[in-house]
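Researcher: Sequence recovery benchmark, item below. Answer with residues only.
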């Protein structure tokens, strides 16, 4: 079982197994992922502060490591209107940052329809934020836990929503609010997320499943559609 002290490669392999299929996962520190940018990518940074520039470079570097692992030709990963990655033809993926860590997951568009992932610091979703993020049933569940466990569960549930939003946006082109999806944490590091909003090809009541894990004082959530 993966735990908080597992290595980055061990955790990346566990995430890849949970997603199944021909998936590549890159997980490392931002400092270790400072590769080159294509001119088109560099132009997107404009006057970005150094922290943002380093995170951007790390995300593109991690994604290209995944593409190379899958035998794909690498190329620029540009940005859409919501700052989402625009992947080269034939490629789908997702990128997330958390302080000093960066995560990228990539697959072929012939095998995978969409991917979503998120990495968050544990304990960052405090009770005063719950009304903006969680529906009544989610708040009731969190309220039944002791403080430390509630903080960890709230982070996982928040992260699951972030991962799902990344999953659905390339398919629907719709922005979702936190209260428009409901997360249930399940045994064996699984979660399910139910849509509460009408979206193109994603009607209310549809349920999607993913996985979560705690690593290096962060929570990582992943899910995909094949």
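Model:
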């Amino acid at each position: 079982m993966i735990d908080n002290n597992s290595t980055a490669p061990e955790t990346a392999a566990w995430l890849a197994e949970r997603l199944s299929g021909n998936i590549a996962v890159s997980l490392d520190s931002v400092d270790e992922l400072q590769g080159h940018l294509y001119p088109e990518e560099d132009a997107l940074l404009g006057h970005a502060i150094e922290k943002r520039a380093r995170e951007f470079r790390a995300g593109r570097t991690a994604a290209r490591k995944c593409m190379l692992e899958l035998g794909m030709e690498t190329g620029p990963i540009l940005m859409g209107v919501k700052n989402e990655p625009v992947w080269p033809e034939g490629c789908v993926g997702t990128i997330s940052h958390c302080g000093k860590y960066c995560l990228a997951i990539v697959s072929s568009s012939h095998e995978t329809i969409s991917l979503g992932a998120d990495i968050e610091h544990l304990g960052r979703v405090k009770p005063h934020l719950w009304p903006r993020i969680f529906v009544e049933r989610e708040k009731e569940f969190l309220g039944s836990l002791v403080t430390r466990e509630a903080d960890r569960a709230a982070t996982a549930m928040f992260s699951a929503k972030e991962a799902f939003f990344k999953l659905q946006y390339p398919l629907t082109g719709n922005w979702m609010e936190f209260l428009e999806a409901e997360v249930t944490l399940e045994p064996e590091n699984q979660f399910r997320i139910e849509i509460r909003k009408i979206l193109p090809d994603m009607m209310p009541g549809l349920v999607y499943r993913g996985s979560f894990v705690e690593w290096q004082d962060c929570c990582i959530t992943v899910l995909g559609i094949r």
